[in-house]
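note to self: dont lose this again. the chain is below, predicted strucutre after it. 334 aa total, dont forget to put it in the shared folder this time
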Amino acid sequence: MLSECTRQKKIARLRQATHQLRVMLQACRCCGRECGVNRWEGQLGVCRTPLSLVSPQVRYASATLHFGEEPMLVGTGGSGTVFFTHCNLRCVFCQNYQISWEGLGRDATVDELARDFCELQRKGAGNINLVTATHCMYPVLLALQKAYETEVQLPLVFNTNGYEMVEFLRCLEGIVDIYLPDLKYMDRKAAARYSAAPNYPQIACEAIREMYRQVGPYDVETSSSQRGVILRHLVLPDNVAGTYDLLLWLKDEGLTDIPLSLMSQYTPQHRAADYPEIARSLSWREYEDVVQYALDLGFEHLLVQECESQNVFLPDFTRQEPFVQREETTGSSV
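---
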């Protein structure tokens, strides 16, 4: 639980951030797309997310206790995850394509979302975990303000694809306690081919620097740690994402103290079958080679997955509980 002082500071920052974000959305530049559309006039960018100042609503597919996140986030009660509909990146192999591409979910008011945040705390969640919320952050901030003003005392996790502009992330300073970004690609051609975002490596690297500046690395040595960056990377077949270059970049940036979750769970989902080079699951040898390389580079806190993860972590958002099998962690520390 957050201290009362920390909670009050968060509430104050939430009030400020809503005003900052309102201005930014007049010519939307929240993510690396920099669409420039006026979200308040109903214009839709790549994320296809409408907004309204008069009666703000937000669309999400699930608000549930999730036991498949990193072990420090799961704890004993699970992570209180809210999966928001649509996405600014929309990767062709997305395992959450039901919500990111197909728009599955329900429209809710700010009050309804705030109640769901409160309910997750009542159910024993160790944190509030916003999954892919960048494109709908304005109503989310309003709901968070209501939730923290009433009863929520949990740390806030910003679970993201890493494609945020630094200006947007500065709006979240003092609000987000734990950043959980992906670093999907270090190869521009791969980012263009699979996510139509050739500038992804540049944008994501700048975003991770900013997140690190705000909260530093997550301290895995302290059981009560409620602050810091935890980084994820999904290893793709044939090193198409530039995984080895990614690890070298983190090393050169002095970021080997960040807990790094190397995910082995890739299987060809959604439209991946249209791309022969990624139309297969990751081999165990490919994954082991990446893990060993990271160890050789001196990463201090490495989180790895078992080979069974390729089947365990596929969600079905048509179900009330999207994850078929309740898992205690996404992996183990090395």
